[in-house]
Amino acid sequence: MNILFVCTGNTCRSCMAEAIFNSICDIDGVRAYSAGISIVPGSKTSKHSASLVMNNLSHDISERSAVQLTSDMIGNADLILTMTNYMRDLIASNFHEKSNNVFSLCEYAGVNGEISDPYGGSIDVYSKTYDQLKNIIGKVLIKIKEDKGIF
What is the CATH number of the domain that holds 131? Predict the structure, then answer.
């Protein structure tokens, strides 16, 4: 199962979500990836995102480059989780065949709201986003296990 996390620039939210999910997922054959709907070519993971992932997960993402969302990535994804409802609607309206597989991250986890973009904020702002992602991704993993009948 391929899970695709999507945000705007793939330097903050979605790359942290990918790292968090892959670090806690204990289901064989389930792997997360991430991309942005509008990246800046050559951009790297934000310093604060990389620092939080390193400090919490001991995983270095500081040198990873932002990945532009492509139709192939959408086609290969079994589940697409976006950071906002707008992103969900944008993908679903342009890829009708995937509309049943596209959710906002909060929606899929049964949580109200959206994942706020910490871009340009302090480490405290990024830390709040990281904690929000970690909490919600834990719920996502439980839902996937329930859907697969794993417990």
Answer: 3.40.50.2300
